[in-house]
Amino acid sequence: MTAPDLIRTVAEPGHGPAHAAPPTSVRRPAKTPLTGGQKKALRLARTLVWPAIVVAILVTQIPFLVTIYYSFQNWNLMRPGSRGFAGFDNYVTVFTGGAFMQSLSATVVITGSSIVLSVLFGLGIALLLNRKFFGQGLARTLVITPFLMMPAAAALIFKWSMLDANVGMVNWGLSTLGVDPVQWNTDFPALTVIMVLTWQYTPFMMLILLAGLQSQSKETLEAASVDGAGPIRSFLHMTLPHLRQYIELAVLLGGIMLLQVFDPIAIMTRGTGGTKTLSYLLYERAFVGLEIGEAAAYGVITVLLTIIVASVALRLLFKIFSNEGAKP
Amino acid sequence: MKRFEMTKSYSMKKRLVLSAVAFSSVGVLLAGCSGAGGGAQQADGPVTLTLATVNNPQMKDMEELKGAFEDSHPDITVDFVAMEENDLRDAVTKDVATQGGQYDIVTVGSYEVPIWGQNDWLVDLGPLAEADPAYNVDDLLPPVRAALTVDDSLFAVPFYGESSFLMYNKDMFAAAGLTMPTNPTWDEVAGFARTLKTDDVAGICLRGKPGWGELFAPLTTVVQTFGGSWFDEGWNAEVNSPEFAEAVQFYTDLVKDAGEADPVSTGFTECLNLFSQGNAAMWYDATSAAGPLESETSAVAGKVGYVHAPVKETKESGWLWAWNLAIPNTSKSQDAAWEFVSWATSTEYIDLVGTTLGWERVPPGSRTSTYENENYLAAAEAFAPITKDIMLAVNPTQPGVNPQPWVGIQYVTVPEFQDLGNQVSQDIADVFAGRDTVKNVLDKGQELAQQAGDAQK
């Protein structure tokens, strides 16, 4: 699924009531007998849908079913002789091992703080870029660059050039202020990962929020200032409510992408000090532990959790969206 | 009403989107797990061998020189698939474990050789090697050969090997009026490190990056020379024993007091960087570091002294590692594969590297005769003799004070060890940062180790 698809799918309901034509009704009001021609057309339509459904089921469900099968297997790659049915043993290991809850909280902390920080910074930069000035286009392009960088490359740059304890630019900058060199990965591993992620995702948030700012009508703002609202008041009472749905969209998309974060952890902290997120834990179980069954069990649980969290979050968000749209 | 319908049709779409997102992530994982098949070859006629290898300089030299082999064996072509160390481990393990048969020759670390051998995944090369007098199997360095042998079966032959030693910056020692003994003890080294430590220069660089092959390579040798071990002779875990704890306490204290900054970021490469720029007075690591340290890009070339690994209770404390060539049982061209393997690990190949690429590029640590070769000794006089002494002195069957039920020094040759070492080393990162104590960490490690030990009983 590509990002534009998602944006379209997610954005649709929010904008729907505001300007779209009423959606075509899914239900027929009453059963009216169909003519032969209509029946034929319907049958053809249904037949034409089938290949797409079959492909959709194959593509989306088979890997998951195989994962579920593996999760009930006792299978360590290095012990070929001992493979067999394990019952719920792998799930018991997941829930009693202790690693899962730690990893869940690490995921929440890292994802949550990175999203909040990048939305805040993104909002600030979007407000600045929304003004007319010489070289605006160039500034916008420059600001977007971190998001276009490969995550592994970004993590390597931070590891070697920015946060290195001996030659890193950040420590050099701090030393000019008289601060002792900081051991980033050793003493503040979670903060290190959050810094990299915030740096990478701020431009993404900025893009969405900038689009929101540019869609705000100048007349409304002018009217507000004629009525005596200062810049702070019109930001808090006019711009921020207008931006609300854009912020929600940014948070949702950012959350989906950041949940899968792997590179900075693998390259910089190696899962130490509260940075072992679910995706890194899964990698460790599968490729360091070589426990395919256990890793599959983690995968299944992660998928279930993601579905629960995402559907609750989505429902919540779209309720807000719909209310916003319904406002006169 | 309209709103209701829309929500409903949306919620279906939403579910689809969600499942697509969620399941595709699982799909990626599974795709990674399934082994790729193929690679079938005819036993007669022209043969193409696929060789999986690690992208180290020595292996690249082998690829460069493979033409010489193909010239003398016109029926055989060799394809190199070079990967980064972790990728190689993943790819080859998957292929061999699932009987994929993609590779005819694999490059295997000495940790995996005994495990894979016991799983019947590798061809026993012993009879082939002994049947070929020109190969001179007795010339292989005895400790390396011992590490690759299980129940008298030689499952791989070494391409190059290494041990560990202590490197020190002679200028810094001279300036401080200190003398390094040839066989230093850890207490002496800790004293030197604390004396030589300044704001800009680390007294000693020791790996702190989590991973069984990073932190636990040097740390396990320290544990052993302090009298500790991962397991006793009956596979009972000994991770929270007083000796193990003392060693970890010593190591972490030394790094905190006189070691490099940001230890959790520091592995082999980072230490090499630090030491070769003259920012560390000592460095305890692989003997293979000497090559880059004496090269033109190093700021300390010619100024480095090399001595035996520091000890406490044992006489020697160097580790033993080798990159080896092995033939998976699934290969369909085992005879041709042996032709290549025996060529690449022969004295003839070592001479070929020396005469065409230069003697300093010879793969070290595999054969005794390498260290009797005048040309090599002249090119590597700073570190070759001591490397040979150490490699012959280490004892992989009993590196520590007490006997152990496996062959290997800085690792335990059981499948569970890479996971165990990885998890304990991640917890030790908390000790470096002061978030946890050695005792807590090792008590946790003891439980994990006992699980691994129980699997061997």
From TrEMBL, chain A:
**What Pfam families does this protein map onto?**
BPD_transp_1
Q: Which residues cross the membrane?
A: 48-72, 104-129, 141-162, 190-213, 246-267, 295-318
Would I find Amino-acid biosynthesis among this entry's keywords? no
Give the ABC transmembrane type-1 domain ranges. Answer: 104-313
**Protein location:** Cell membrane
Alphabetical keyword list:
Cell membrane, Membrane, Transmembrane, Transmembrane helix, Transport
Quote the biased-composition stretches of kind Low complexity, using this chain's numbering.
Answer: 11-23
Q: How does it sit in the membrane?
A: Multi-pass membrane protein
Q: Does the keyword Nuclease apply?
A: no
Q: Extract the ranges annotated as region (Disordered).
A: 11-33
GO cellular component terms listed in the entry, alphabetical order: plasma membrane
Q: What biological-process terms (Gene Ontology) are attached?
A: transmembrane transport
Q: Which family does it belong to?
A: Belongs to the binding-protein-dependent transport system permease family.
Q: Which PANTHER family match?
A: BLR7065 PROTEIN (PTHR43005), INTEGRAL MEMBRANE SUGAR TRANSPORT PROTEIN (PTHR43005:SF2)
What name appears for this protein in its UniProt entry? Sugar ABC transporter permease
